[in-house]
Amino acid sequence: MIVTKPNGTKVELTVNQTMNAGQIEWFKAGSGTFYFYFILFFLCK
Amino acid sequence: MNSAAGPWLKYRGHLDNISNNLLIGAINSENNQANKIFNRLTKQYGGVPDVARDYKKNKISWIVIGDENYGEGSSREHAALEVRHLGGKVVLVKSFARIHETNLKKQGVLPLTFNDPKDYDKIDPADSISIVGLNELAPGKVIQFSLLLFFSFFFNFVKKFFNYNHYHSPLK
Questions:
Q1: Between vectors from CA B53 to CA B50 and to CA B57, what angle results, nearest 5°?
Q2: Contacts of A23 in chain B (CB under 8 A)
Q3: Which of A21, B43, B49, B98 would you call most buried, defined as having the most Cβ atoms within 10 angstroms of its Cβ?
Q4: B23-72, pLDDT tens digit by residue?
Q5: Touching check for B108 and chain A: CB below 8 Å?
């Protein structure tokens, strides 16, 4: 993660996430409704 | 109106109305006041839901920077839904209350914690935040440059403490 100060200075920070593989798929799809269409897209492919 | 719900009674019904309760009891670290944050578009202070709506209207994503035990007392799904509804993409805190963190995941908001809690003090309300590299998101992976969804964003962000009861703190 990059934090940009008003004077243009950049600070790099490390952050943690706790999602499992299924939750990451869900997140990448954009949560519920989008996940449904995401699955539907691959089923219809 | 007399009700057991008191001043919170008006935050009911549909999501857009409920979202008028977004973080309104959180204390802004910039001025130690609740529901008063700087709108970087209008250069004026406004309520949290109002500023969030203005950012959303102008297609500016924002994130919440929070302290320890963020979301304690906000186990209702709407607490996470409000963030999503008003354009919040990420909640970055020192630590989460468990149920609220899960609800954020359900609603498609990315919950993150500082690898080093002291980094909290390196972020100020006037800063912009860029998160790149989320395509490489993997279970348990520490993110150094993470990418949000499919493109990178610059976030205006709202820095606030959240060690209070979101839905039941007294209104000013």
A1: 140
A2: 105
A3: B49
A4: 888 888 888 888 999 898 898 999 999 999 999 999 888 889 998 999 88
A5: yes
Q: Does B147 touch chain A (CB under 8 A)?
A: no
Dihedral class, residue A41 (left if φ above 0, else alpha if ψ from -120 to 50, else beta): alpha
* Contact present, B168 and B8 (Cβ < 8 Å): yes
The predicted pLDDT at position B52 comes to: 92
How many Å apart are CA B167 and CA B62, to the nearest integer? 21
Helix or strand holding residue B113 (H, E): strand B110-114
- Model pTM? 0.78
Tokens read off for B125: 């309300």
Cα–Cα distance, B25 to B16 (Å, whole number): 18
At residue B90, the 3 state secondary structure works out as strand
pLDDT of residue B50: 93
Provide the number of CB pairs (under 8 Å) joining chain A to chain B: 99
pLDDT score of B161 more than 60: no
Count of Cβ atoms closer than 10 Å to residue B137 Cβ? 20
Residue from the list A3, A12, A20 with its beta carbon closest to the beta carbon of B139: A20
